[in-house]
């Protein structure tokens, strides 16, 4: 089966499994797990920040960032289809008691003038703007890259208004590889960053929240409150370390395969490609009024290809470390079989 549903479907390599078995562990809630600490130090160094916190998931990392940066009744500015708003169950309102102020971006990129207009003036009738969030790469826009200059200008605007910036960088290393830049080059324009080890990097589980030491000290308290404290978590951090050290540079292969897939599908009647393929995602729409995205996915599954629906007409196909060039060719052939 060629599984293109997500880059989260990968399984740990033998090297990861060996590291998980052999890794030195301790009680991380007491700060005594050396493998967790090594991972936190490594990712903080990679992003040019002082400290980091290992957490179970990207959603928890994002929500801890919101909880740490804001106060109840404040407002958070973010893109209307961002993961923080769209895919985290309304958690910022449920947990942090803050309200989202959504702005419709272009390919996930916020317009600076709209952001400035959305920042609340000092008026007793309005909530205070407590945080601005950026997602890079932007999942709902098909893994699109938020340009470095846009991040820089957003951060400078936020600084002028004394508002912190959080970067949902679940796939930040995809962004860095796509832009041919170091991840820390993007991270310099955020006060906190969420990084996922279990997407393109291929670890089985885990994310990190990265920031300055005082921020991470407070974030550690929130992790405990949310039940995210893990004991001998080095068995997980060991795999994440391998992912970080071994699988960052190879993301270029995923991007190459996604572009190859998009190029092949563009030649098939009744299929259009909806996104500019910056990284590892392809959004393909069916131009056939007699076929829905779910019907297309059923036909693809019969041909050993899996994807996910993103609308009644469109599906998403995501490349990852288990996908090779031959898989891309077989996927294109499956589409050709359906539409010829």
Automatic annotation (TrEMBL):
The modification N6-(pyridoxal phosphate)lysine is found at residue 199. Its EC number is 4.1.2.5. Belongs to the threonine aldolase family. One of its GO terms (biological process) is L-threonine catabolic process. Residues 3-288 form the Aromatic amino acid beta-eliminating lyase/threonine aldolase domain. This is Threonine aldolase. Its cofactor is pyridoxal 5'-phosphate. The lineage of its organism: Bacteria, Bacillati, Bacillota, Bacilli, Bacillales. GO terms for molecular function: L-allo-threonine aldolase activity. GO terms for cellular component: cytosol. Keywords: Lyase, Pyridoxal phosphate.
């Amino acid at each position: 089966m060629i599984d293109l549903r997500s880059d989260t479907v990968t399984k740990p390599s033998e090297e990861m499994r060996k590291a998980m078995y052999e890794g030195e562990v301790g009680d991380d809630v007491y700060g005594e797990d050396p493998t967790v600490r090594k991972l936190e130090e490594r990712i903080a160094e990679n992003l040019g920040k002082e400290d980091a916190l290992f957490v179970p998931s990207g959603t928890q990392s994002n929500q801890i960032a919101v909880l740490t940066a804001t106060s109840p009744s404040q407002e958070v500015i973010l893109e209307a289809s961002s993961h923080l708003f769209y895919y985290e169950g309304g958690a910022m309102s449920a947990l942090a008691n803050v309200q989202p102020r959504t702005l419709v971006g272009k390919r996930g990129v916020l317009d600076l003038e709209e952001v400035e207009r959305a920042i609340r003036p000092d008026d007793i009738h309005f909530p205070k703007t407590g945080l601005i969030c950026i997602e890079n790469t932007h999942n709902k826009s098909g893994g699109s890259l938020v340009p470095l200059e846009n991040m820089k200008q957003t951060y400078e605007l936020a600084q002028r208004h004394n508002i912190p910036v959080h970067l949902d960088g679940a796939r930040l290393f995809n962004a860095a590889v796509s832009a041919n830049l170091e991840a820390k080059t993007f991270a310099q324009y955020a006060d906190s960053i969420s990084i996922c080890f279990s997407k393109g990097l291929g670890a089985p589980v885990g994310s990190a929240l990265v920031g300055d030491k005082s921020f991470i000290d407070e974030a550690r308290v929130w992790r405990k409150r949310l039940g995210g404290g893990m004991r001998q978590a080095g068995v997980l951090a060991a795999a994440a370390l391998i992912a970080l050290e071994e699988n960052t540079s190879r993301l270029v292969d995923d991007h190459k395969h996604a572009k190859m897939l998009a190029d092949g599908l563009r030649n098939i009647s009744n299929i259009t490609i909806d996104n500019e393929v910056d990284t590892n995602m392809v959004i393909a729409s069916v131009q056939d009024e007699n076929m829905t995205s779910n019907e297309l996915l059923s036909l693809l599954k019969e041909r050993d290809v899996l994807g996910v629906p993103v609308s009644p007409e469109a599906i998403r196909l995501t490349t990852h470390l288990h996908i090779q060039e031959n898989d891309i060719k077989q996927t294109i052939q499956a589409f050709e079989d359906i539409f010829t």
